Amino acid sequence: MNLMPSNRTGENPLWESSEPYYDDIVTLWDLFRSATPLIQILQPVAYEEEIRSMIDIWRHDGYMPDGRSSNFNGRTQGGSNADNVLADAYVKGVVGRIDWSDGYRAMVKDAEVPPPNNHVDPAAPDSSDKEGRGALPDWLALHYVSTKYTRSVTRAVEYSANNFALYQVAKGMDKTEDAAKYLNRSRNWRNHWDPNATALGFSGFVMPRNEDGSFVNQDPLSCGGCYWGNAYYEALPWEYTFNPIHDMATLIDYMGGTEQFIDRLNVTFERKKGPKGRTVAFGNTIFDPTNEVSFMTPYLYHYAGRQDLSVKTARSLAEKNFKPGKSGLLGNSDSGAMQSWLLWNMIGLYPVTGQTTFLIGSPWFGMTIDLGDGKTLKITTNQGGNDAAIYVQSLRLNGRKWNKNWLEWNDVFAKGGTLDFDLAEEPSGWSLDGELPPSPASESQSL
Asked: Which pTM does this prediction carry?
């Protein structure tokens, strides 16, 4: 399905191993949100091999890659996102020939041992941008990442997700003390929350902090150069603020509750609200559809009980921004990340990486997905070619009425299953009284 990563098993010039070897991983910080979960479903054998390869790279090179090419780890944008990929496989029951004891040790190495500074990038000389988590000294001592380090907020947000990934695996392995430690660290994004930061009438954003604990006075609609030497990489503070997916109930509370959360999301997609010149092709929205940091943002309405607004927003973005032909992609493919977002949109589901949760959208058409080993996921819809019929009126999951706006891996993927959608042109109130998607790092939800 993908040209990258490259399967170079038997062609590794650096070490001999009985494990698979994959190179040209460009890059996991782009792929972990929607591409690797799709590969798990469509190419489960290759998916397992890629995970085994990343663990074997740790055995021989010392760290799993966030990006890798020409048999060399590098670079690392923010966190160590191989951790997210491993956790996603673990919670979905991928076993095969994976040595999960070593997999866990590789994840712990990322979480506990700062990599040596490779001093490659003059724009970011403070720590390694090759592998691991270069800002770990701050993370472990201060429980946030100070401006001593470049990409400080990007790192903090991603380190939080990486630690949640470790929590998931530790919990599954009955490592109780480790699980508690990493769950607590996964909440450290909160230490970057500045309730006094304001933009467009909204208060509270993830902001840079100095070593003395003070917040930097930063415009939530500006990320400076948005590059290696800045506090935010490739996205605005406004966009990064929506990224603690494992702790959404807390984020909604910080933002002032459900209605304020919905209002802020609405503004995110409103034309002419973003910085001038940044997303001109998309109407100068704050939301940047070319950037993986914002891939899940259209679906966050689910966590406020408004699945219909997720469908409306995600479908509109897909139809406006993707076209057939050579210029059909709205930005860099990023090794298939962009296409995978569109494919999930068409399927009518969206994965929550590191959890067994899939958010339910609406399918563009009926389909049967081959899951391997004789298993299938069959999706039907009554829309009959009516592209305006996007709103769920009712849903049957494996023949049972379903009123939640999410489902789990075991519901339709582990053994196969069916999803039968009744769609129409207007919202129906379906799922409004259903249980909200999990927010496992939030104290307000049972763990």
From this structure: 0.97
